[in-house]
Amino acid sequence: MRSILQALLATTLLFVGTATARYDDTPYMGCTGVPNNSPVLDLPATPLKTVPNGQSWKMEQDTNFVYIAKLSGTPYQMGYAYGQLFGKEIGDNFNNVLNYGYTKLESILSKFGIPEVMIYYIWSQAQPAVLYLLDLNWQIAEPWIPQRFVDELRGIADGSGGAVTEQNIRRANMLPELTQAACSIVGSWGAASQDGKLYHLRALDWEPTAPVNQYPSVVIYEPSEEGSETFANIGYLGLIGSLTAMSKLGISVGEKVFYARAGDYEDPPHITYYGKPWAFHLRDTVQFAKNLADVEQMLFNVNRTMMIHLGYGSLPDKAFRGHDYAANFVIPYDDKNYTHYSQAHPQLDGIFYYDRQVQPSGSPCIGSILNATHGSVNPATMYRDIAGYDETGNAQVIVMDPEAQEIWATWSQYGASVNAYERSPMHIKLADFWGAGMKCGGGGFLSA
Ligand SMILES: *[C@@H]1O[C@H](CO)[C@@H](O)[C@H](O)[C@H]1NC(C)=O
Ligand SMILES: *[C@@H]1O[C@H](CO)[C@@H](O)[C@H](O)[C@H]1NC(C)=O
Ligand SMILES: CC(=O)N[C@H]1CO[C@H](CO)[C@@H](O)[C@@H]1O
């Protein structure tokens, strides 16, 4: 079934571009890009709206912007507040994805000389099929979807006052299940980092011109559910699963698609649709885990679906782990025991990474940057050097500092072909939003 689902999506919604080499003479081996020297932006957060269980802000300068929300309460209450704050934008974002599917199809088919009216006809036939697949995926996975996600999605639809339907918001949230992106994951800690701090880079290589970048977002959840931690879900408005997230306690996550070459794993990895959608599960690890042992326990004890590589940072452990995650196994790795070290991918104390290629990758770029900067890796090494030189993170580049509770975040430019890894990182101090004295309703010092 994967092949049918993915083939259909490939021709409608998806188009994973390949980066082209533009520069040969970088100081690092195998790198094709240039450092991202765009200035870091420290922007004021302008309050947008306050509702009983939530508040929203926007940071903005020229073409750089991010929507921020803080939600608290039960899953339904948080969803309802989310819908009240951003229902219209979430509805727009769903339409953006669908329209994008049409534009993409048109740009592919028009190259074959297929007339516009014919393309429109094909799309009118394909669109219901795509929606059907998203509905089907929800139905198949439903027995494994925790009630809290169902309630939050229903809350969003109810709170949006008709701007987005429950069915469409569910559909949007099945997209990650059907399309895992390329991407890079880098963790640096201990011996590798400046001051021994833990830093986590999550670079998302998907489709930089997909108009979901109209609504880049940081959504802070303060769930009242027992055992929950406050956390920030970093991505796009309306996607309630996690592609990138960090808790106040200091658990951070990022992922990338996992392809395996024949013979790479004794037990070849596989996928299934019968299980808990991975983006929902990643979010739950950040909401509930107190340390790496909890994370791993949660990764092992769940009915997994897709094949992805994961990076987890943990401030309580002051460490980072990579994981190969598939329906049939999970393998954790630290900085000493990755099973695919090579000349291009050296073992380095306090470093774990996967680059944006299929793993194990023959590209020495990230390895040579980390080898050269070993002992002094800091956030700029990640957003400026690794993302820039390796041209990774065309859609999103997020550097997380769990100790300082800060992130540096960029998304591709809305309405233009500018990759996230070329743009100004927005420096966001999460403690300003989830810190003491910032309960919902108080505009406080953020009303700059
Ligand atoms: C690598 O080491 C970690 C502990 O640091 C362990 O949990 C994991 O199972 C090891 N992985 C492999 C592949 O040996
Ligand atoms: C790592 O850096 C050392 C010098 O500090 C150099 O000798 C070595 O060749 C480098 N290795 C890689 C894989 O880049
Ligand atoms: C943790 C979990 O939900 N495990 C279930 C996975 O699915 C099988 C059946 O396919 C169940 O037996 C497990 O309990």
Automatic annotation (TrEMBL):
<dbReference type="InterPro" id="IPR047803">
    <property type="entry name" value="DCD1A/B-like"/>
</dbReference>
<feature type="signal peptide">
    <location>
        <begin position="1"/>
        <end position="21"/>
    </location>
</feature>
<keyword id="KW-0732">Signal</keyword>
<protein>
    <submittedName>
        <fullName>Uncharacterized protein</fullName>
    </submittedName>
</protein>
